[in-house]
UniProtKB/TrEMBL annotation:
Protein's UniProt name: Trans-2,3-enoyl-CoA reductase-like
Transmembrane segments: 332-356
Alphabetical list of InterPro entries matching this protein: 3-oxo-5_a-steroid_4-DH_C, SRD5A/TECR, TECR-like_N, TECRL_Ubl
GO molecular function: oxidoreductase activity, acting on the CH-CH group of donors
Source organism phylogeny: Eukaryota, Metazoa, Chordata, Craniata, Vertebrata
Protein topology in the membrane: Multi-pass membrane protein
Gene: TECRL
Compartment annotation: Endoplasmic reticulum; Membrane
Residue segments, region Disordered: 1-24
Major localisation: endoplasmic reticulum
GO biological process, one term: very long-chain fatty acid biosynthetic process
C-alpha cells in the first residue's frame, strides 16, 4: 500500500539582511513620528497665517464733508481703529494746513453735537468708511490764556485810575482833595480779588486741553475791563464821597468781602482735589474747614461766594451826591456813580446764577443722590 504523501509547502528562505532592514525602517519611522509629535506639543497651537489673522478691517477711511454745502473736503485714509477724533483732526490738518486741530469741529450728523477729542474712532464706525461733518470754529485760544487775559486787565486798569493819571483827572483838584481811607481799602480789595483769580488760574484750576473761540475772550474782556474802568473812575475820583454810615459800614462790608474771598478760594481748592472712589468721581463734601460747609446747602458755593464778594464791595464803596452849593453841577454825576458798582454786582449775580443752574443740572446727572436736595447757588431761592 502506497502511502500518499502530502505535498510539501514551498519553503520560504528568509534573508537576514532584509529582515533586519525592515525592522530598522519601521523603528526609524516611529521615532520620527514621536519626535514630530513632541515638537508640535512643545510649540503649542499652530498659529494661523498672517493673512488669516488680519482678514478683518484694519484701517478706516474718514470722509470729511462741509457741514453747510455737504461737499467733500478731503478723505483721511489709513486711520487705525485705535485712533481718536483728535488723531483725525491732526491728519486733517496735514491735508488742509489752514485749519489747525483746535479750530476743527467734527460732527457725526449735521445737527449733532461736536465730537470730543477723546472719542475712539472705531466706536463711530458702521463700515470701513466713516463720514464726518466739518465746522470751522474760528480763531481759538486756550483756557489758561483766556482767564489770564481776562483777569490781568482789571488789575492793571484799576491801578491806573488809583494813581490818578493827569490824563484822567484834573491834577489841581487831585492835590486839593484828600483821599478817604475807603479809597485805599477799595483798591486793596479789588487787587486782592483779581490776584487771587490769577494765582488760582496758574496753580489751582485744572483746565482741559480744549479751547474756546477768540470772540468769547473778547466779549469777556470787554465786560470785565469796561466795568472796571467805570468803577475805578468814580471810586478814585477826587470828589468821591465816603459811605453814608461811615466807618462801621466800611468795616463790616470789608470783613464780609474778605470772608467771601477766603471761602471762594477754599471751595476752588476742594473742587480741584475731588476725592476719587475707584473710577467714579465723588461730589465734594464738607470738611473741617468751615468755609466748605456751604456744600451742605448748595452745589456751586464758589458762585455764592463770588456774588457775596461783589455785593460786599458795593456796600463798602457806596457813594452819595455832593450837597455843597459850589458843586451843584456834580449832583447828577454822583447820582450815577452811586449805581456803578451796584449795576456790576447785579449783572454778576445774574451771570453766576445762570452758570450755577447749568452746572447744577450736570451735577444732578452725575451725583443725583448727593445733589438732589441742594440748591444751585443761593439756598432755597435757586
Amino acid at each position: 500500500m502506497h502511502q500518499r504523501q502530502k505535498p510539501s509547502a514551498p519553503e520560504h528562505t528568509s534573508d537576514p539582511a532584509a529582515d533586519g532592514g525592515a525592522l530598522s525602517m519601521s523603528h526609524n519611522d516611529s521615532r520620527s513620528l514621536l519626535n514630530f509629535s513632541q515638537l508640535v506639543l512643545s510649540a503649542g497651537q499652530i498659529k494661523p497665517s498672517p493673512g488669516l489673522k488680519h482678514s478683518k478691517i484694519t484701517y478706516f477711511e474718514v470722509e470729511i464733508l462741509d457741514v453747510q454745502s455737504k461737499k467733500q473736503i478731503c478723505i483721511v485714509d489709513k486711520v487705525p481703529p485705535a485712533s481718536t477724533v483728535l488723531d483725525v483732526k491732526h491728519k486733517f490738518h496735514k491735508a488742509c494746513p489752514q485749519w489747525y486741530p483746535s479750530r476743527v469741529g467734527l460732527q457725526l450728523e449735521r445737527n449733532g453735537p461736536f465730537l470730543k477729542d477723546s472719542i475712539n474712532i472705531q466706536s463711530l464706525a458702521v463700515s470701513s468708511i466713516i463720514t464726518l461733518y466739518f465746522t470751522d470754529l474760528g480763531q481759538q485760544v486756550g483756557w489758561t490764556t483766556f482767564f489770564l487775559t481776562e483777569y490781568t486787565g482789571p488789575l492793571l486798569i484799576y491801578l491806573l485810575f488809583y494813581i490818578r493819571l493827569s490824563t484822567i483827572y484834573d491834577q489841581v483838584e487831585s492835590r486839593k482833595n484828600f483821599r478817604h481811607p475807603v479809597v485805599h481799602l477799595a483798591c486793596f480789595c479789588h487787587c486782592l480779588h483779581y490776584i487771587r483769580h490769577l494765582l488760582e488760574t496758574l496753580f489751582v484750576h485744572k483746565f482741559s486741553e480744549g479751547h474756546t473761540p477768540l470772540k468769547n475772550m473778547i466779549k469777556g474782556c470787554a465786560f470785565y475791563w469796561g466795568f472796571t474802568s467805570w468803577i475805578a473812575y468814580y471810586i478814585n475820583h477826587p470828589r468821591y464821597t465816603p459811605p453814608s454810615f461811615g466807618h462801621r459800614q466800611v468795616s463790616y462790608a470789608a470783613l464780609a468781602f474778605l470772608m467771601c474771598e477766603a471761602g471762594n478760594h477754599f471751595i476752588n481748592v476742594a473742587l480741584a482735589h475731588q476725592t476719587n472712589s475707584g473710577n467714579k468721581t465723588c461730589f465734594p463734601s464738607p470738611t473741617y474747614n468751615p468755609f466748605t460747609w456751604l456744600f451742605l446747602l448748595v452745589s456751586c458755593p464758589n458762585y455764592t461766594y463770588e456774588a457775596g464778594s461783589w455785593i460786599s464791595f458795593t456796600v463798602m464803596t457806596q457813594t452819595l451826591p455832593e450837597t455843597d452849593m459850589e458843586r451843584r453841577h456834580m449832583i447828577l454825576f454822583f447820582k450815577s456813580s452811586s449805581l456803578v458798582v451796584g449795576i456790576f454786582a447785579f449783572l454778576m449775580v445774574i451771570q453766576m446764577s445762570l452758570w450755577a443752574q447749568k452746572k447744577h443740572k450736570l451735577y444732578l446727572k452725575r451725583f443725583y443722590p448727593e445733589v438732589r436736595r441742594k440748591a444751585a447757588m443761593i439756598p432755597i431761592i435757586f
